[in-house]
Amino acid sequence: MTTLTSQPLSGLLDRLFEEANTATSPAMGNLSLEECDRLMHSKTEYRHLYGLIRDLWLPVSRETGNLLYMLARSSRARTIVEFGTSFGISTLFLAAALRDNGGGQLITSEFEPSKVVRAGQNLADGGLIDLVEIREGDALTTFADLPDAIDLVLLDGAKSIYLDVFKLIEPRLRPGALIIADDADNCPEYLDYIRSAPRTFLSTSFADDIDVTMRLA
């Protein structure tokens, strides 16, 4: 048995995915597709968009969560950085891997105060809060101070600033570190940066717009 497949986490994840699937956002219904797309790709108004849709969970899929767990376990990650906590579903998968790796630290960042509170409660309910530091605010600020030798990174926040956030993390990546970018097809600037440096990064795409990159030696 693993932390991921044992109680209390297994049952908690079932409940959270069910809740996420039924969540709605009244504000989202008032946004045109064009306006939503504009805000999503804006480097100055992304916080406004995520404030409007704060009721939406925006979780990774269960399959992606399992992939995160497997990558963190197989790489024996001990130091993980996550951009975009939301209600903490992806954080739970990553923290479970840390627990089963023997411990470590997960630093994550979230814009919305209400999501920070709920994510913290979910991590406590899953018995994993001791492994996680949730930094409230914009990751461009909260990630100014990070540990050295980061083993794994998840990018799953505001798409327009993936590259800006990654550049804060990049100098601290150890050789062999993994970077998982969710919805990567919406982040061409980030993908262009990664794929323009084949001697530094090895990158491949998976289903559901997931890009997995390894930092080479």
For the structure shown, list the relevant keywords.
42% helix, seven-stranded mixed β-sheet, alpha/beta, Rossmann fold, 7 strands, 10 helices, 217 residues
Short characterization:
With 217 residues, the protein is of the alpha/beta class. It has helices spanning 9-22, 26-29, 33-40, 46-52, 62-74, 89-100, 113-125, 139-142, 162-169, 188-195, and strands spanning 79-83, 105-110, 132-136, 150-155, 173-181, 201-206, 210-215. The chain has one domain (9-14, 56-215): Vaccinia Virus protein VP39 (Rossmann fold, 3-Layer(aba) Sandwich).
Please mark out the parts with pLDDT under 50 across 5 or more consecutive residues, or reply none.
Answer: none
Give me the CATH fold name: Rossmann fold
Give the helices and strands as they follow along the chain: HHHHHEHEHEHEHEHEE
Number of H- or I-type helical stretches: 10
At CATH's second level, what is the architecture? 3-Layer(aba) Sandwich
For the residues shown, what is the average pLDDT?
92
Provide the gyration radius in Å: 16 Å
Domain module tally: 1
Q: Major sheet: order of its strands?
A: 3-2-1-4-5-7-6
Overall strand count: 7
Q: What level of helicity do the residues show?
A: 40-55%
Largest sheet: 7 strands, mixed
Structural class: alpha/beta
Q: Which CATH class?
A: Alpha Beta
**What is the percentage of strand-forming residues?**
15-25%
Detailed description of the structure:
There is one protein chain. By secondary structure, the chain is of the alpha/beta class. The chain has one domain (9-14, 56-215): 3-Layer(aba) Sandwich (Rossmann fold), CATH 3.40.50.150. The protein is built from 10 helices and 7 strands. Strands 3-2-1-4-5-7-6 form a 7-stranded mixed beta sheet, with helices on both faces. Helix 6 (89-100) links the parallel strand 1 and strand 2. The longest helix has 14 residues, at 9-22. The mean pLDDT is 92.
